[in-house]
Amino acid sequence: MGEKRSHGRTKAGVELTHEVLERMAVDAEEGLDIAKLRRRPGRPAMGSGPADSVPVRLDPELRKALDDRAVADNATASDVVREALRRYLEVS
What we know:
Among the domains are: 6-36, no CATH class; 60-89. Helix content is 42%, strand content 8%. The chain has three helices and two strands; from the N terminus they run ββααα. Strands 1-2 form a two-stranded antiparallel ribbon. α2 (60-72) packs across α3 (77-89).
């Protein structure tokens, strides 16, 4: 009797045997129904398009003030910086 070799498990707990992987390969070759594919969670969209990351150096006093404001507003430092830039640049 042949031994079933496992290649691990999916997040849902399905054991990935050779037979399961073969079936998945056949399904993929036949074409996957995109509507059935689950969308993976990611960062929520911001504004009108993809957001850029802009590294900024802050002196210790400015960083402390930023962190203090974020705590006081129950927000993240990024939220505070974005809001400050919107106000300064007069952008909605």
